Amino acid sequence: MSLPDGFTDIPPGKIAAIATILERREPPTSQAFTSEGRPGWRFERTERPDLDWYTRLLRRVGTNHLWYQRLILGPEAIAAKIAAPATVIHALVVDGEAEGIAELDLSEPGAAELVYFGVTPDLAGQGAAHFMMERLIAAAFSDPIDRLWLHTNTIDHPRAMAFYRRAGFTPVRQMLELADDPRLLGLFPSDAAPQVPLFPRPEEE
């Protein structure tokens, strides 16, 4: 698919974003973490995550950024995905409550995809993401992988790109991401992600 230079109309009922693929190929040089976090913070692997726990956490972290890709699958498909041996889920636990998620997909030999990474809005700007990322990178490269990769897009946190680059990730590819607006599908309330205009299809108005 080739798009012309200049502006291209986005159909009503759709959202569009520029997605950037980033990768890191070097393991951490030391297991000594620079961030010890705050009292009560723990980064831990979640074995056999409960479906309700997982979807609730995904919504708490991702609603402001319209993380729809997993939620659109439906409960049975989500349950199967998070139970798969190649899916590894870590959580940031604060005083007993999950407040951040870092999900890896290890299905590609020699690589790990960081599918979801983020913290709840109340923890933004408090160093929680840095605390998580240091530990996530160490955990990912503890397996024999050559590449840790992820994608972010322009609906994510405005400092996401700079954060990932500081964590040692390099941009390698960009794509246009076009999808049905998940707010119109009932996956998120209509006032979620106010930075993204909502344009219903005429029949939905």
Structure overview:
- It is a single chain.
- Strand 5 (111-119), helix 3 (128-141) and strand 6 form a beta-alpha-beta unit.
- The protein is α+β, with helices and mostly antiparallel strands and 205 residues long.
- It has a 7-stranded mixed beta sheet, with helices on both faces.
- The relative contact order is 0.25.
- The chain is globular.
- The mean pLDDT is 93.
- The chain has 4 helices and 7 strands, in the order E-E-H-H-E-E-E-H-E-H-E.
List keywords for this structure.
single chain, 205 residues, alpha+beta, seven-stranded mixed β-sheet, 7 strands, 20% helix, globular
By DSSP (H or I, 4+ residues per run), the number of helices equals 4
The whole-angstrom Rg is: 18 Å
Mean pLDDT: 93
Shape: globular
Sheet/helix structural class: alpha+beta
Q: Which percent range fits the helix content?
A: 10-25%
* Beta strands, count: 7
Instruction: Record the strand order, biggest sheet.
Output: 2-3-4-5-6-1-7
Helix-strand sequence = EEHHEEEHEHE
Tell me the distance between the termini.
Answer: 31 Å
**Largest sheet entry:** 7 strands, mixed
**Beta-strand level of the residues, as a percent range?**
25-35%
- Low-confidence segments, given as residue ranges, are none
Could you write a compact summary of the structure shown?
With 205 residues, the protein is an alpha+beta fold. It is 20% helix and 29% strand.
